[in-house]
Queue: 2 jobs
Job 1
Amino acid sequence: MIVPRFRLLFWIAAVFLPFSILAAVVPSAVFFSLGAALILVVIAVVDATFSLGNLSGIQVELPATVRFSKGKEGVIALRIKNESMKSRRLRLSLAFPLQIYSPRRELIVYLPKENLYSSVSWPCKGLKQGKYNLDKCYLETISNFGFWAIRGTSTINTEIRVYPNLLVESKNLSALFLNRGVGIHSQRQVGKGRDFEQLREYIPGDSYEDIHWKATAKRGQPITKVFQIERTQVVYVVIDASRLSARRAYSDNTRGPSRKEDSLFYTTILERYITAALVLGLAAEKQGDLFGLLIFDDRVQRFAGAKNGRAHFNVCRDMLYTLQPNSVSPDYSELFTFIGTRIRRRSLLLFLTHLDDPVLAQNFTKNIDIISRRHLVLVNTLRPAGAKPVFSSPGVESADELYQKLGGGILWQSLRETEKVLRRLGADFSMMDNETLCAELISKYLSVKKRQIL
């Protein structure tokens, strides 16, 4: 594609306008005026003809995969191949999706002479986690005389992955479960332990419960059983990706929906659950435990068996960052049946779901006994906006605020009733605030590990 530049428009105005006036005022100068105009036209045509190939041999190369953390600035490295190795002024533009913000709509690059490759960095930032594609890079250079802009495209195939930003959460959690300095350290565990380790001779003070009577009879002296604390535990995070997870994650200072909620980039409850799950995965890896994931809505969508290691964490991260909520209601009966079938070893199950809907809460409590006998179940949910005891806040200023507080009090009471039912069925229930979700989840996990409840 070729389009005129300002230089061509300037010379057209500078030649055609005065010579047109001259031809109108002095009839004898008509042929002279036409000749001047014709010369300009010929120069413009020649310039366009010999400049059409200025973009040939120029190709833009991008990495196949570019990774960003949500809300964190980064760069995309571009490499420009110039086969002609002639000096060029190049104008570049990338068609970023709405979820990728860049302060630069275009870049001006000067390709040096006798250089086959040139490199340039494009700053940008991921606003919403997910996977996005770039398939074209738009190019523009100028003609030899500068009258025309030669435009074209270079085909690229780049995948942009925007992961949850775990850096902020990790910094907030450092004071919670780190012993000293920077980094994650294993916690000292207390208790007797349940895994048999060895037999040894009786030492005064050993409990009679630990005496191995058969070995004592064979050897003719007291023999004691020694147990070790279970170092490796199995932890699963069960994430609800149904319709209620698409709601906005409100803070304490958020009164209710606003126009910002219509934006494409607000943080959903599911995104907060994903961040919490990945942070817990990092903690479990440092503690030496096995970490697994289970994602469900009306059926089990994704499942990753409990393992350890950095490669397994990357698999879990790739499984989660593209996760989107579905407009269906969760089916807890099918979920619990799947858990009972696939997760045979006793495990810590950390549910991230929604029980503020009475129908869903009843369905959950009705089927929880399928797994609560074998596994340790901790049910967690984000506290809904406005869900507080009726008289926990100062006086109201309007009738609308009064009804909002009454509705929040009723919702709070309903959730507390659900908590009592779950405790009777052997499961723990917690309502967590948006800002402290990760901290509270890690605290519960470390408490279970330290007390050897599992």
Note: Residues 3 and 71 are 38 Å apart (CA to CA).
Job 2
Amino acid sequence: MTGGHEQLTARLDEVTVAMESLTAMLDTELDLGQMLQAVCDHAVQVVPGADMASITLVREGVPETVASTDQRAVNFDREQYRIGDGPCLRAAETGQPVRVGVGAVGDLWPQFVTSAEQLGVASFLAAPLTVDEDMSGAVNLFGFGEHGFSELGTKILELYTATVVIGLRSARRYFAARELVDQLNRALETRAVIDQAKGILMAAHRITAEEAFQRLVKRSQDGNRKLHEVAAEFVAAVATTT
């Protein structure tokens, strides 16, 4: 009894260290791919019976393995994507963990039995990653033993993936904010060059701002080109002749 308690305590200590490491990553500008790879590496260490790990992200309905500890895990993921079902896709779709042994896999997904035997995988555990309405996924664990993973292993993985979801959501917000800033900067640059071209036309032809703008619009339509490209080309041409 004491031995089991000590093993559980040691396992929880490992989970705590892994989660602290992951949380520390969230406070840095570490590449998202590196963070997800670290998630796979830690998951194999902290979940009993896990021999391989991968992460599936589903964006716009398309699943993709974005990190793994073993090419065999990637190959099995791809087999699921090809068929359109399996432990990782089921977890991503339902938002519920999927824990099965090879026997249950044969009942649920008989088309995977051959692949599982070829890869030497006998146990599967997938915990969902519910990021937002545009992104879901799963952390997928594969075991070579026929243990089917334990309830404790499932709870440990769910606890760990909760931190992963926080990281993914933060990354999504960061990239969305950065894209918005880039769009605003491009809009400001575009407006500046259009205003500059309008000013040149107004001075050269003694016309109003609206008339100058319409001339630029006509050039844009005649050449089937974007307005800011026409304006930039016009400004550059004037600069070379002055």
Note: The longest helix spans residues 151-205.
